[in-house]
Design brief:
The structure is a homodimer. Chain A has helices spanning about 5, 20-25, 40-45, 65-75, 115-120, 120-125, 140-145, 160-165, 220-225, 260-270, 295; strands at about 10-15, 30-35, 55-60, 80-90, 90-95, 110, 130-135, 150-155, 165-170, 180-185, 200-210, 235-240, 250-255, 275-285. By secondary structure, the first copy, chain A, is of the alpha/beta class.
């Protein structure tokens, strides 16, 4: 492996044991890793050149608001998306190795508010009397349980268990299956990244389209520019502009790499309609497959 | 005021002093109020008939994930939206009355992770050495500061200050202006609600459209059904179905009340395309205007 790979500075929304860190571990062989407390702090570090690469949640996140990532990327920093990694969200109930459920009852459950909410049904049925305690991340919840000697549990992923020498008392306690988080890998100066042995499931392009005024059918006209070129849109989301209520921009994911024919054609048509198009990135899309508990055990 | 108004049971995402509670105070004269720890817990209580009305964040929330509200409402409970309230998000730095910034330096700043992220630039410049501590809500952060005798501060709204007898040391420390949160008011059995003296800014209808398969131009066809009827869409968002990646449904806000001509026409056309349409609510939209600090003081 070339030395330069290990010299790459990679930042992510921390702490250790979060779903973001799972995405980072899946993406990179090695490097100089830094954990950031907030999404803006991580994106700022990329913008300022303090790190080469940042990894932040972009959709359906536990640790942070999607909107925060999108808004900060569209309004404050200019750091293109160079890859995305989709990670399945599987929440487990984590306890210390010496905790014996036959002897003691769990009195408190720690986790990020979103993770607790995702396990609402399970907690309601299994631990109706346990006190719910909220933390800044699932990783932090695991740290607290590891450092305590009380009969308490954390909700988090298997990495949080490993990082904090906890055991998984109960697998997959989330109420809904098929929950995923998409993470964006961003770089100020796109450079060749060494991604671990993943094969991209597809290539995608993300654009931001700003409409001159909120009028009936405007979005329909915008989408027509993509539709007649048979460009498939895998995501569309309207977001308010920071200039006030009622002014929206659209964030659109297209299921293909940027090219010099179709995209400039779309852009020219949208400009003729008074819209503007900003390219936020064209990138390979990776998926992390986490083995299910059934596959890990002898069952 | 009729007695029945006070008997209405209203639940909201708590605790006291959150932006959700600001929306609740703005909406209702009186009633029997219950604070819930999570969005699913509040929605479950409405579904189960334990409360008449629930108020939860729907977009750009501090306390909770938008996606959680939308997903829970579309997949788990059947509680129509009967009103929405938009609240401007203004974050202030809150301290105890006896705290003197001339004598002591703030060592820790407490708040919900999203609120801390929203004030990232301010904190970075003004309090680079303060430790950031994360709480489950802005309201909880204010409680912690009120109960402490250390030189610490909370980030929260003016209601959090009032509820916990804190003072606003610095107004409007959020990095971006014009940030708003939309709250949904939901009821299992829609009944006449006594809304305080607000005049709706408009009427809206929210629908969920499910596509049979993710194919190029599908969304464009769906929007055509609205566009040729000159129905203005104020929000559109694609969300993954819980059945796995790549299967999406669309959440669409239309800027008009449900009627018996246009909407059934749209529904019939979409069904002919193999799509299904589910009505999530048709409701008045209210806006809370919070006076700016300049208007409150003599400046």
């Amino acid at each position: 492996m070339p030395e330069s790979e290990y010299n790459q500075k990679i930042g992510y929304l921390g702490p250790k044991g979060t779903f973001t860190k799972m995405a980072v571990d899946a993406l990179f062989h090695g490097g100089d890793f830094t954990s950031y407390e907030t999404i803006p702090a991580c994106l700022d570090a990329v913008e300022a050149g303090e790190i080469d690469t940042g990894v932040v949640p972009m959709e359906n996140a536990i640790e942070g608001s999607v909107h925060l990532t999108i808004d900060y990327m569209t309004h404050h920093v200019d750091v293109p998306i160079v890859a995305e990694m989709t990670v399945p969200i599987k929440q487990h109930l984590l306890v210390r190795k010496d905790f014996d459920p036959e002897v003691e009852e769990i009195t408190q459950v720690y986790s990020h508010s979103h993770a607790i909410a995702q396990c609402h049904q399970y907690l309601h049925k299994q631990y109706p009397n346990a006190e719910l305690r909220y933390t800044s991340s699932t990783g932090r919840a695991a740290e607290i349980v590891a450092d305590s000697d009380e009969p308490i549990a954390a909700i988090g992923n298997h990495l949080a268990a490993e990082e904090n020498r906890l055991v998984i008392m109960k697998h997959d306690i989330h109420d809904y299956d098929n929950n995923h988080t998409r993470f964006a890998v961003v770089q100020k100066q796109p450079k060749t990244m060494k991604i671990r042995d993943h094969i991209p499931t597809k290539h995608k392009t993300t654009v931001m389209v700003t409409l001159p005024k909120d009028y009936a059918g405007a979005l329909h006209q915008v989408l027509a520019a993509f539709a007649w070129r048979k460009m498939n849109l895998s995501k569309i989301e309207s977001r308010p502009m920071k200039t006030g209520l009622g002014n929206y921009f659209f964030l659109i994911d297209i299921d293909q790499a940027y090219d010099q024919v179709l995209f400039p054609g779309v852009e020219a048509e949208l400009e003729a309609l008074g819209c503007s198009l900003k390219l936020l990135g064209t990138y390979p899309s990776y998926e992390l497959s986490v083995p299910t508990p059934n596959m890990q055990t002898s069952q």
